[in-house]
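Here is my example:
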Amino acid sequence: MSSPALQRPRAPRYVVEATTRGLGVVACAIAAIVTGNLRSTAWQVLALIALAIIVSIPFPRAWMRYAAFLGESFFAALIVVIAPAGMRPSLVYLVVPPIVAGFSIGIIGVLASVSTIAIVLSFGILLTNNTALPVTVVETSVWLAVSVTLGMATLLVRHLQDRLAPPDSGYQTARVLLSSLRDVARTLPEGLEEPVLAQRALQEVGAILSHDRAGVFVFSPSGTLVEVAREPANSPGWNVRADRDIWTQSADLDAPVQRLGRLDGLEIGSGNACAVIPLRLDGRHIGAIAIERSGGLWAISELNAAQTAADAAALRLDAARIFDDVRELATMAERQRLSREIHDGIAQQVAGLGMIVEDIVARTNDPATAQELARVRGDLSTMVTELRLSIFDLRTDSGQGIGTDLADYVRREADRSQVTAHLHIEEQPTSLKPGISAQLLRIGQEAVINALRHAQPRNVWVTYRADELGIVLEVADDGVGIASEALRADSYGLMIMRERATSIHGELNVTARLEGGTIVQLAVESQDPS
């Protein structure tokens, strides 16, 4: 770890500049005193003081600051030229402009400063008389060489300071980066929403290539192509495989590829044409844009123009994807905090109310009152279940897949209900469309909690299989069976599960188990079949 001394912040630029100029003026005054010419050369010291004050003013614009550096070099050299030979303490100040320029601007500043001083001194030498000329050349040449040396030394010190300076702390770096990201996101016309930017990419490509339908696909972390935008929105999607057919050709050639027929099949005689345009960024592919139309192939010039538009869109889409990752990381801690507050706060209070209601039911002798209280107790149990599901949703940030998260949930609820859980998870690293993961998890949660709450089972079997062929989620129990399930008054839960299944284009079936009990099965066809 770096020592505290090394981690002290650097002095501000204007402090260094003012200090350097002040030391230069003091050195000139000392030179005048040592040579015994203070009275005759005092005007040079005063002129340099005025010059140092003027050029140290914090000018609002960059070009004004650069002009000040050149002006300082010019007038410092002019004072030397005007001063009589042998009485030039102002020569000492010639080292100041290159040092200041080297610290604040860099090598360009040093060269500009030294060049300005050299030009002014050269004209001054040419205008002096012959007797003073040899002395003037020697003096000015020596101090000019010193100015160049100190200016270059300043550059070296600045370089070493930048290389050896300890890096900022992680939080300081994160603060700077996040502040910049926030400012940029506010100024961008479409923001950093991936679907919005993908739709814009379709519009830009569509203005170049006429088409009947088009789609934007990006690579997921598992390497599959996921659709993020479609045009028209109600058009059917494509069966996409990043490792075959025209998709592979486009990636291998690193260029647009077109052919006759449809993307889903050849159909060469159908009069259709299709093309895949890679989304390229920094030598890698982040996705592709697919288009299709009824008609002939596109012109090569049109495809090249579309590729240019796609390259520009790739940068925007990748920035949106990174922004989503940053946003997800930033909300993770807040999700954990909310889950703790719900668990320790309202969930405990509702559970406590349920116990109070149970106690009242046990002490009442009025059947009607007991029935009403039982209904209230059932509503409270439903609220506790929903709160548990919400807590689980908030804490589900493992990133290990739906199967792992669902298995964790089943084990915990089965232990709480003293039921034996049998799990069978087969999950390949396939990508799910946005929204499907959450719906799958909630359907599985609700099916499990319904079985544990109403079926009174001894065992519950949960099977989850996800691969390139599709998704199958099955929850079975050996409880009281489908007849009792169907007669329940709270079949609203089953209706919600069906609605969730419909929203992800899945099919939900509830059937009786041959050995007794119920089977809830959800099947979702693959969006990316082999």
Q: What stands out?
A: The chain is about 60% helix and 15% strand. The radius of gyration is 39 Å.
